[in-house]
Amino acid sequence: MKIGLALKELHRSENDLAHELLQVADRHKADHDIFHVGRDLAEWSQRHVREIAEIAADYGEKLDPDPKGELTVVERALDKGSELAGRARTPGLLLLRDLRELYMKAAGVSVDWELLAQAAQGIKHRDLLALCERCHPDNLRQMRWANAKLKESATQVLVS
Q1: What domain count does the chain have?
Q2: Higher-confidence position of 11 and 85
Q3: What is the rounded CA–CA span in Å between residue 89 and residue 67?
Q4: What separation in angstroms does the CA of 131 have from each of 10, 75, 97, 137?
Q5: Domain range holding 114?
Q6: How far is Cα 66 from Cα 99, in angstroms, rounded to an integer?
Q7: Cβ–Cβ under 8 Å, residues 75 and 83
Q8: Model-level pTM?
Q9: How does pLDDT run across 50-106, given as a tens digit for each residue?
Q10: How far is the C-alpha of 85 from the C-alpha of 32, rounded, in Å?
Q11: CATH code at 36?
């Protein structure tokens, strides 16, 4: 079975999504909705990372249960340095780029959850299916939030 490999990929993807949510929240602190909701949504993916690591042992994978944390000092400095050097786009375009990236990452994670759920159903592994049924709806909400924020921001940013 290759379920261990699928869990490993999902673990990586959820970790990346959580990290990206934290980065976006940090970059857009002035927008309280982006900052606070983004951090809350990152916590969901961090919880998923822990749960995936827990069940992965049953499938021969040893995954780190500790999700990626806050941005490092180096990452913050690189972000700020890029902004100061003039490589950062206008704040509105940067927000659209960030939200688009979040949406795309969340969509990829969603596909991973779907694949895993189908495999769990096929082999009748109830614990794995329960994990998918618990976590995938959170992920779908992350994706819908990013999409809604894109729709909310696009007109103002693109026509101003």
Answers
A1: 1
A2: 11
A3: 29
A4: 12, 32, 31, 11
A5: 3-159
A6: 25
A7: no
A8: 0.87
A9: 999 999 999 999 999 999 765 555 555 555 554 544 445 578 899 999 999 999 999
A10: 26
A11: 1.20.1260.10
